[in-house]
Design brief:
Helix content: 55-70%
Radius of gyration: 26 Å
Largest sheet: none
Number of strands: 0
Number of helices: 7
Distance between the termini: 57 Å
Shape: extended
Structural class: mainly alpha
Number of domains: 2
Order of helices and strands: HHHHHHH
Strand content: under 5%
């Protein structure tokens, strides 16, 4: 390719240059534009806020189009539903740690040692449960979705299982104890 052709191909943008009126209209419709009136800015902010709220609501409902790439696909939906259908100590780990922190303030060495033992046993349980859950998820995904990549599946399941049920995003779609297919 000659230098002239190279410049020509780099310089092209695939669309015609907009007319001045169109370019000015675009800048007026931007919130950041100094030319936009305060009424326009308020209106655009309100529209932007409404779009964000609707997008967030769709994400929390678990709509596929609103999910980020790490949460998309039937395999990830299966993992979310599987994790959401069971209760574990791992999801209460944060609350447990706060309780342990409170117990360590008490100036009784027996209570402090007990609290620390509870904390370490909960950490060990969470780690072992996460490891076993990751293995189980990989097996189930391999059987249920043969072409699906297993990369990150175990960590995805484990991290979801360590979040408190109320704070999970997207929100749980199944009840605790419900069978997941």
């Amino acid at each position: 390719m000659s230098k002239a052709e190279e410049k020509k191909s780099v310089g092209k943008k695939g669309k015609p240059t907009p007319k001045r009126k169109e370019a000015e209209a675009k800048t007026k419709s931007s919130i950041l534009s100094p030319n936009a009136s305060s009424f326009d800015k308020k209106k655009l902010k309100a529209q932007s806020r409404a779009r964000r709220l609707e997008s967030r609501a769709a994400f929390m409902r678990g709509e596929e189009s609103a999910l980020p790439p790490r949460d998309r696909g039937p395999a990830k939906r299966f993992i979310r539903n599987y994790v959401d259908s069971r209760r574990t100590i791992s999801e209460y780990f944060l609350v447990l740690i706060m309780f342990v922190l409170f117990l360590t303030i008490i100036p009784n060495p027996t209570i402090q040692i007990f609290a620390i033992a509870v904390m370490y046993s909960a950490m060990l349980y969470a780690a072992v449960d996460g490891f076993l859950l990751a293995r189980r998820m990989k097996k189930l995904i391999t059987l249920k979705y043969p072409g699906e990549s297993l990369r990150g599946v175990g960590m995805y399941a484990w991290l979801r299982s360590t979040q408190m049920r109320r704070l999970r995003a997207p929100a749980p779609q199944v009840k605790v104890g419900e069978k997941v297919h």
